Amino acid sequence: MKIRVLFVCLLILVAYIANAFANPIPLPLSSRSSTPQVKYGFSWSFENADWYGLNSRDAYVKLLDEVKFDWVRLSFFWDRHVKDGELNLGEIEFAIREAEKRDIKVIVVVGAKTPYHPEYHLPDNIKNQIKFGDTITVDHPIADDLLEIDRIVVQELSKYPNISYWQVENEPFLANIDNLKIGPDLLGAEVDVVRGNDLGHRPIILNHVGPAAFDRQYKKLFEIMKPGDILGVNSYLKTQGVNLFSVSVFGREIRVPWPKWLFWPVQSWVFLSPDYTRLRSEAAEKGLDLWVLEMQADPYVRSISEAQRKDYFFDTGDISRGNDYLEASGVDSIGFWGAAFWLYRERIGDSSWINTISDITSSR
Length: 364
Description:
alpha/beta; TIM Barrel; 14 helices
């Protein structure tokens, strides 16, 4: 009898795992036709566009002109926008002004941890004060400098009326490769600085990863937020790591690279994956909207040669299916991740990525 029970349990487990891989993007459970239309945006990094060899300013303007977006998210990179102690926000201000010409709203991200690799965009004098595994709290050596640069950036940019939101930090409670995190106390202090120095008194966005069923860290954000603010999450659909596994044997590191054909499904683990419908209801109870700031809209690309491949484990059909799933979940806004990749693919003769995004945003 015990063997039979174990066998049935094993079959259920195999079926559970097989379903997650066979159907990585869940089918929409309902239609959103009776609810307000979702708003669409994208994240932009001039640095990332430069990496692809694009003319980053021209590429940005092209995207604003050719795709019907409601908002764009721009990040302050401390190491890029402060040189030799001098603040230079010309790049961000250019992007804000170009968006304003087209009636596109802007989100500005401030803090130590902002979108795009390597996440902590810190000048050397700040980076040298941080140790592996630090949780950066209000008592950390860099805290005062961080709060001051937040204040300066907000004061400089708050004059632009099309800045509609300030995002403070990006996934602050998620450790990066150096196991660094932002403490809730510092996050709260940063939000106070932003609110206190914004002439326009704009809402705040705080975000967390797309929380799995057992992840309750996002609830700490509610203690900092006010009605009218935005709870942000992400939605990655098919992910890949750098290594399938890495072990140390007798002092020698053995790494097995992640196969290019293999992906890990994120959204299809029944009872475990993020429940966006529940999250939206929970946010609404606090007077907050729920936005997906980053919906995966590109494959994992770590080199230009990878960006030139013909086939990927993630394709344009996945973008459409992911959008349908999130729309039906009731999220208020969706931000697509991968803008520079779409434009690079178009430059080398593949317009399918940019066309897919354009079709989605124009179908409202």
